[in-house]
Amino acid sequence: MNPLKEVDFAVTLCSKDGIITYMNNKAVRTFEKDGGLKLIGSNVLDCHPEPSKSQLADMLKTEKKNVYTIEKNGVKKLIYQTPYYEKGVYSGFAELSLELPEQMENFIRS
Predict the structure, then answer these.
(1) Which of 1, 62, 68, 99 is surrounded by the most beta carbons within 10 Å?
(2) Which domains does the chain have, with CATH numbers?
(3) Inter-residue contact 18 to 45 (CB < 8 Å)
(4) Is the pTM value of this prediction over 0.85?
(5) Model confidence at 1, in pLDDT bands (50, 70, 90)?
C-alpha cells in the first residue's frame, strides 16, 4: 500500500546521486511530455537546464532545502524540495509540487 500514489499533488524522489527512484501518479502525469514513468532510473540533473541544474547539484551535495512558487500556463504551484533520511542517513531528495488556488486563505495562529 502506498498512500501517496494517488494524492492530488506530485511527489518525486531521487537518490543522493540524483537518480529518480519514485514518482506518484500526479508526478508521472505532470512530467508526461518529458517521459513520465520512463524518467524513473534517469538522473534528475538531466531534466534541468542551467542554472537550475547547478543549483540542484549543489542541493544534492549539501543537503540544502529549496522552497519556491512558480506560475506556468496560469497555474501557480508551490515547489518544496527537501532532503530525506532513512534511519538518520541522508538518502536523497523529495520534491512536492502542489497546485495553489488563485485565492487562498491564510490563517494566523498563535
Answers:
(1) 99
(2) 10-100 (3.30.450.20)
(3) yes
(4) yes
(5) confident
* Residue range 72-94, pLDDT digits in tens: 999 999 999 999 999 999 999 99
Give the number of residues written for the chain: 110
* 54-74 residues labelled b (16+ CB within 10 A) or e (exposed): eebeebbeeeeeeeeeeeeee
Q: Confirm if 39 and 58 have CB atoms less than 8 A apart.
A: no
Give residue for cell 488556488: 101
